[in-house]
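Take the subject:
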Amino acid sequence: MLNDALGPIDRNVYMGLGESTNDSNNDLPDGDGDKFDDLFAAATQELYVGCTKFSVFSFIVKLMDIKVLNHWSNKSFDLLLQLLKDVLPKGSNIPLSHYNAKKMLRDLGLGYESIHACKHD
């Protein structure tokens, strides 16, 4: 999914100049590189062994889209995730709660802020 949007990512090339990156020249604040590495791993990690259609990240994005479009509660989403965890083969990598799924997306910058828009306020 990320490769489709951004093209192949070569983390050893800095700014396309062919120079290897090292930790002393890293422009990311402390800890952000680790977050990126975790998210990149989730984006490329199989949902379960042998699954080629979905990565963990693409599966979470699709489920969150369905949740929003159908106005599911967080509790119903948690119940669905628990059911999917039981149905999928052992070792599947789906999150166990809405909070964990939302946290993963928020760390990538895909969070949201609810805006109260009542016309009577």
